[in-house]
Write a structure and sequence with these properties.
It is a single chain. With 345 residues, the chain is α/β, with parallel strands linked by helices. Helix content is 43%, strand content 15%. The chain is built from 14 helices and 12 strands. Helix 7 links the parallel strand 5 and strand 6.
Length: 345
């Protein structure tokens, strides 16, 4: 039985082109700056985002945490949305690794605005921590995208008016760009530093890039070493990252179309509640009346049908489309769910 994996777009397998490139990659010791394939990937990432330099790191979480560590000093405070990835899914790392606090902002749609950031930036008072950084996301963890106007407004408020650097968690920046009909560099323009993943929906097996000014990346490189991220002959991995950027970013609209198709099919169930307008990239969030089944039973029942999903979080399920999921897979998933729900009706 073929497995359909809807848990995340991190489950994608390297393409055959990637495997060939990895097998034949020219490598050196990257900590010494000797790996030509890593250098090529970093140059490509910087050019793609319109930044001066970039740094190859093992994971998106490390990329975000290096950015925080490089922008801030111990005792600083950073600003982020209350559902930001660095708040919800990075294990409290800002406090542990950088010694900074996080001031979270609550909004109905998780989109930060200039006035909200203005209100959150600390004044000059002996009792206050220093606001060291503002963190934004695009695409958001809820599967929606942030309009360029909102990005520009936050950047103008933080960077231009207050001199506070802005870091963009752009793990899925290419999804956001495809959804907005712009280039990734158009989004990245409203941030001093940007992290994006080549292993989320782009099929590379490992890796993320952190981009910014040359002096910022020089300091970030030392912090990568501090965190154990010097990967030596990492050109083998970087080779896949190059193909991820040059080739796989161009097909993301297919995943978005499949997500919208999946959402329309799920919306046919009376037991499913979802907002079609919120399906903007490759993620479908919905609530489900399981007809007496527990969450664990539902996950296990689909697993028996060869369909992998995560359990619900905050009352919602998330299905993610990617290179490994086509229309037939979606139809098979919907049919399996229909069979389960009919049994419990």
């Amino acid at each position: 039985m073929d497995i359909i994996d809807l848990r995340s777009d991190t489950v994608t397998q390297p393409t055959e082109e990637m495997r060939r490139a990895m097998a034949s990659a020219e490598v050196g010791d990257d900590v010494y700056g000797d790996d030509p394939t890593v250098r090529r990937l970093e140059e490509l990432a910087a050019e793609t985002l319109g930044k001066k330099a970039a740094l190859f790191v093992p994971t998106g979480t490390m990329g975000n945490q290096i950015a925080i560590m490089t922008h801030t000093h111990r005792g600083d405070e950073i600003i982020a949305g209350e559902n930001a990835h660095i708040v919800m899914h990075e294990v409290g790392a800002p406090a542990v690794l950088s010694g900074v606090g996080v001031r979270t902002i609550k909004t109905p749609d998780d989109i930060l605005t200039g006035p909200l950031v203005e209100q959150a930036i600390r004044g000059k008072d002996i009792h206050f921590p220093v606001t060291g950084m503002v963190e934004v996301e695009n695409a958001l963890s809820n599967g929606t995208v942030v309009p360029l106007a909102a990005m520009k407004e936050v950047y103008h408020t933080a960077s231009y008016q207050h001199g506070v650097p802005v870091h963009l968690d752009g793990a899925r920046i290419f999804n956001a760009a495809a959804a907005l009909g712009v280039r990734a560099r158009d989004i990245a323009r409203s941030a001093d530093s940007v992290m994006f993943c080549v292993s989320k929906g782009l099929c590379a097996p490992v890796g993320s890039l952190l981009a910014g000014r040359e002096d910022f990346i020089a300091r970030a490189r030392k912090n990568r070493k501090l965190l154990g991220g010097g990967m030596r002959q990492s050109g083998i991995l970087a080779a896949a990252g190059i193909i991820a950027i040059e080739t796989m970013t161009k097909r993301l609209e297919e995943d978005h179309d499949n997500a919208k198709y999946l959402a329309r099919r799920l919306a046919e169930f009376s037991a499913v509640t979802l907002d079609l307008a919120s399906v903007q990239i490759n993620m479908v969030f919905f609530t489900l009346k399981r007809g007496g089944m527990s969450d664990g039973e539902f996950v296990e029942a689909l697993a028996k049908e060869g369909i992998k999903i995560n359990g619900e979080e905050d009352g919602q399920y998330r299905f993610v489309t990617h290179w490994g999921v086509g229309r037939r897979d979606i139809d098979r998933t919907v049919e399996a769910m229909a069979k389960l729900l009919r049994r419990r009706a």
